[in-house]
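Batch job 17 of 40 flagged for manual review because the log was empty.
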Amino acid sequence: VAGPAEFDGARFDHDVVFDAVSFADEARFVDVHFEGSTGSGEATFEGATFDGPATFEGGVFPHADFEGVDFGTSVTFAGTTFESRAEFGAASFGDAGTFFDAVFEHDATFTGTTFAGDATFFDVEFRGGADKAADAGFAGATFEADVDFQSVECATAVLSASKVAPANPAS
């Protein structure tokens, strides 16, 4: 997609596949509902590239698949609800990844994900699902800038082998 992409307020009644799509400019998905024909809609963005800012504020995802996505600049999922699994494994977040006030009703995986810029999970709820192994999985994730997990609600989180860069690295 060469120019801006705007889906604000859209309602998708079937599964939506944006796999390997390249968004060269701003991509807006504000207040979008991915309901699917059975109420369990799937929104997949596997391997997609966002070169401009991406906004998913206030959206509702029954199942979200952002595996291997490259968010080149900033992305926000503020106020977004993930009603089933949310998969961000091996995703790359550029300038900033913001999940302020988001709700993950089931497991959220950020395995092997890289946050090059600030990662904000302020006031996020990780409620988990049937699999109580981990409500939030950040195994092998890399945080290269500031990380904010203030006021997060989570029963179980996995951060094994994750890397967090120092706030003020020595010169």
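Reviewer: the log was empty due to a logging misconfiguration, but the result itself is present. The mean pLDDT is 89. Unflagging and moving on to job 18.
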